[in-house]
Write a structure and sequence with these properties.
This protein has 102 residues and is mainly alpha-helical. It has a single domain, classed as Winged helix-like DNA-binding domain superfamily/Winged helix DNA-binding domain (Arc Repressor Mutant, subunit A), CATH 1.10.10. Helix content is 48%, strand content 10%. It is built from 4 helices and 2 strands. It has a two-stranded antiparallel ribbon with strand order 1-2. Strand 1 and strand 2 form a beta hairpin. Helix 1 packs across helix 3 and helix 1 crosses helix 4. The relative contact order is 0.20.
Length: 102
């Protein structure tokens, strides 16, 4: 069985982004904070890669994005994003949320 490493990485990034935003609540962080956090896990992560996954999460109504005209993005969680991060609701495919073990 072949493992699609790109898919694993994308779905893991989405989970780590949700965790980062959940930890930063109630402050909505600058995308640089999210990128620095993700680089602690995937050192070769790029701004474009993080933005692509933020867009995906926004399309699923899990995050809010304030795309500033000056360039940077400010990211936050919706109530659905909080519920996913806190294991309150089921997580659909596309995000590598670990199984709840407690």
């Amino acid at each position: 069985m072949n493992i699609d490493q790109a898919k694993v990485r994308r779905e893991s990034l989405r989970w780590y982004i949700l965790l980062t935003l959940n930890t930063s609540r109630p402050v909505d962080p600058h995308e640089a904070v999210v990128l620095d956090t993700i680089r602690g896990i995937y050192p070769d992560s790029t701004q474009m890669e993080v933005r692509r996954e933020l867009d995906y999460l926004a399309d699923r109504s899990l995050v809010t994005l304030d795309k500033r005209p000056s360039g940077p993005w400010i990211c936050g969680l919706t109530h659905y994003g909080v519920d996913i991060a806190e294991y309150t609701i089921d997580c659909k495919p596309g995000i590598s949320r670990p199984e709840k073990y407690w």
